[in-house]
Structure formats: structure tokens, C-alpha cells
Amino acid sequence: MTPAARVVDGLLEASVVGSFSRIGLAVRSRLLPEFTAGHAPSLFGQVVVITGATSGLGQAAATQLARRGAAVHFLARDRARAVRAQRLITTASGNSTVSFGLADLEDLDSIRTFAREFTGRHDHLDVLIHNAGAIHPSYRANDAGVELTVAGQVIAPFLLTELLLPALRAAATARVITVSSAGMYTQRLDPPTLEMTETDYHGVTAYARVKRAQVALSREWARRVGPGHVAFHAMHPGWADTPGLAAMLPGFHRLMRPILRTPEQGADTLVWLAAADPAHLGSGRFWHDRRPRSEYRLPRTREAGPGVAGQLWESVAELVPA
What we know:
CATH superfamily of the largest domain: NAD(P)-binding Rossmann-like Domain
Number of domains: 2
Distance between the termini: 46 Å
Strand content: 5-15%
CATH topology of the largest domain: Rossmann fold
Strand order of the largest sheet: 3-2-1-4-5-6-7-8
Oligomer: single chain
Number of helices: 14
Largest sheet: 8 strands, mixed
């Protein structure tokens, strides 16, 4: 990277709005070597599993991955929506190897069934993408008494990773990618208060907390699995104009809509991480616009100590016995 490009990238990152909006991607795509060097690698012959692909950023990512030749298998809750998404992704990509399985991320037994069916048909997995996410406007808990934001976006991805890890290890160079959110910058990882109660519940805060937890768990998976065939990455897509954002944060969506990224732009780094040379990516990093970024913007959000992510990993692992 040239010194000038480094300065511009740093100024964009410091500005927040410039970094997270379509402005940042437009500038960086012209300056950074990650955008300007080489061509888009083919994913022909690779198998990708992605959650949250029936709309928005996930569907855009699934389409781009299929367009590069990947066999995309996505997890969906509703059959009708899954069939529609499969048709749209197949048509847009020209790739007929797009399939889906049904599971509810808030139901651990259905995740186990999904993983069992997948591994029964595939002997390896090249890329696992945890993309599904939602803000619940009011407090709700699953049958086990776990608040749904934590159940669906912390416990479920952990279990799915654990169940598919043997298939990932069987691939030549596999990777697990977690889609976080810029909202996580506002929260500090604190395992005892990760799950909000019915009394103090606030949907946006609960969502930001689990997104912070996802990043910490991705880093912890990288540490525990260690260097080898499976790499772990977390990223945030910036501010993308998706149905979820419009529904969850309507005021923000109206105000920022002129500079929001398209779903395709939001998915750019996600797709790039799935296809880039693994030797240049390492493992356990947090990414935005194709470059590793700091996980922290505010001093108060730093973890209390180096073992906090490990404490979270252990507490989640206790909730997902095989």
C-alpha cells in the first residue's frame, strides 16, 4: 500500500461515517491493493454453507459465491422463502448447484438435524458463513429459557461450527466467517451480562452485545483450533441497505439511506474472505473493507482481561452438548 493510500484509509476509518458508508468502499476500492491487485479467484469445486441467505446481505453473498462457481448450501427456517431464494440465487448466478436445508437457529435439535443431513451428503466443507442475525423488539426466550438473541446468534453458530468442524478439517484449506455488525463497537464483552433479562431488555443493545460476542468467539475458535486447515475470521459489512435494517432501525435507515451500501457492497469483504489466498489472511482477525481492523473504537469497550473470551467460550460450550 502506498503511503497516501494508507493515510486516506486511516482517515476514513477514523471518520466512522466515511468508513461504514458506501463512500468508504468507493474510495478504498480505487486505492487499496486488496481491491486493485489481481482478479477474483474461482471457487469452482468448493462447498459453502451460509446462514441467513433468504434475503439481504446473505442472499447477495450467496449469489456472488455461486457466481464464482461454489456449490452453495444455505440454512433457512421457512421452506417457501428458501425455495424463492434458491430460485433467485440460481437465476442470478447461473449456477445450478444451489441447495438448502431447513433449520431454526433458535432450536438446537433442528441445527443438529441440518448438520447431520449435510455431512451425510458431503465429505468436506470449504467455507462456513455465519450471517443470520435479527433484532427482537421485545424479550422472548426459547424452551430452554435462553433469550432468543443469544440463542440464535451466539449458541446456534457455536453449535453449528462444532458439528461441522470435522467436515471443515477434511477440506484442504477451510475457513469459518462470522458476519458481525458495526453496532458491536458500542458494547463491551462481559459474559455474565451478555444475556439481557425481561426487565432490562432492549433489542438493539442485545443485538450489539451478541455481535461483540461473535467477534470474541471467532478469535477464541482460532486460538483453540490453532493454525492448520481451518481459519476463523469475523467481519462487519458497514451500513448496508437491507430489509432487516429498514425494519429494525427505521429512523437510522431513513436518515442514512442516501449513503448506505447496497447488499452486494456490504457482502464484498465477506465474499473476498471466502475466496482470498488463505496464506495472506491468517486467522482470528476482524475485517472491514478487505483489511484487518481494530475490534475497539472506545476504550470502555475493551475486555477486562485476556481470558474473558475464553470464559465466554466455556460458558457457551456448556450449553451445547453434542
